[in-house]
Amino acid sequence: MSSWSRRVPIAIFLALFVAWGCGEESAGPRDERPAPHAPTLDAAARQLADLKKEDGATAGGQSFCCLSGEPCGSCLLRSGACGCAERVQRGEWICAECRAGWLAGRSAFPDRTLDSVPEPTPEEWSAFLLREWLPRSRSADPAVRAVAEAKEELRRTQRYACCVESPRGPDAPAAWRAQAGRAPLDLPECLLCVLAGSECDCAASLIEHGGKGPVCGECRAGWKAGCGAIPGVNPENVESWPAGEAQRRMERGFSPGRDSKRRE
């Protein structure tokens, strides 16, 4: 069964998305979608916060992440550890959440610019998503389960409609076919939208803007890796969040207390 069958029908999601701005200006935006179950999202936020604290403790008070302040959550959830800081030092790629953080001014490397940090190749991105978890990653299991439940809660309340999915069929790489239906976070669906605003509108953005987006950096990497889920979209045309959008979303962060409100 395709993961699209579990998602909000795109036509309904897009109709709701457009409807936000259709009311009278004096009445403000209307959000007729069900409100997420706050305890589910609160539990995920707490589990992720605990995991980030453990990452700093394991690194002797210094995170392995390349962001200043809080480390990224995507790497911790996907692989149990963040290696973005080491990759920056080697001149290699960093994860999409860290790229968004750099755009928002949170780089821990003031002598580097984002232009000097490459994006992952399709092969690197696929390997990152599919690699075996590191030995210390078992401690991430509670956070993984909590965030997976939060993502399903957002999907249920029509706040999560990703534009990428695991490649299927005989032409899909064997590694992707092997993990289909087994990954708790539904690889390669994005986590960045959940962690940067608790809402994914990447599919609606692509449809509304003629297949260009912008979408989150994880979805853009997914399209380039052959994981696009919307027919007729050219992966080369898919754009990621510009600096202003990345900063706005990253500043909001994973804030369950505000998830019943639409993005401003």
Indicate the topology:
Elements: H1 10-19, H2 38-58, H3 74-79, H4 84-89, H5 96-103, H6 122-130, H7 141-156, H8 174-179, H9 192-195, H10 202-208, H11 217-224, H12 243-252
Helix pairs in contact: 1-10, 2-7
Structural features, described:
By secondary structure, this protein is mainly alpha-helical. The protein has one domain. The protein is 42% helix and 0% strand. The protein is built from twelve helices and no strands. Helix 2 runs antiparallel to helix 7. The protein is globular, with a radius of gyration of 18 Å. The model is unreliable at 1-27, 132-136 and 258-264 (pLDDT under 50).
What are the defining features of this structure?
about 260 residues, mainly alpha, disordered N terminus
Summary of the model, kept short:
The protein is an all-alpha fold. The chain has one domain. It has helices at 10-19, 38-58, 74-79, 84-89, 96-103, 122-130, 141-156, 174-179, 192-195, 202-208, 217-224, 243-252.
The share of residues in helices is: 40-55%
User: What is the chain-wise order of helices and strands?
Assistant: HHHHHHHHHHHH
Strand content: under 5%
Query: Whole-number radius of gyration?
Result: 18 Å
Strand elements, count: 0
Q: How does the major sheet shape up?
A: none
Kindly state the mean pLDDT as a whole number? Answer: 77
The N- and C-terminal alpha carbons lie at a distance of: 35 Å
Oligomer: single chain
- When the domains are counted, the total is 1
The shape, in one word, is: globular
Poorly predicted spans: 1-27, 132-136, 258-264
**How many H/I helical runs?**
12
Instruction: Look at the helices and sheets and give the structural class.
Output: mainly alpha
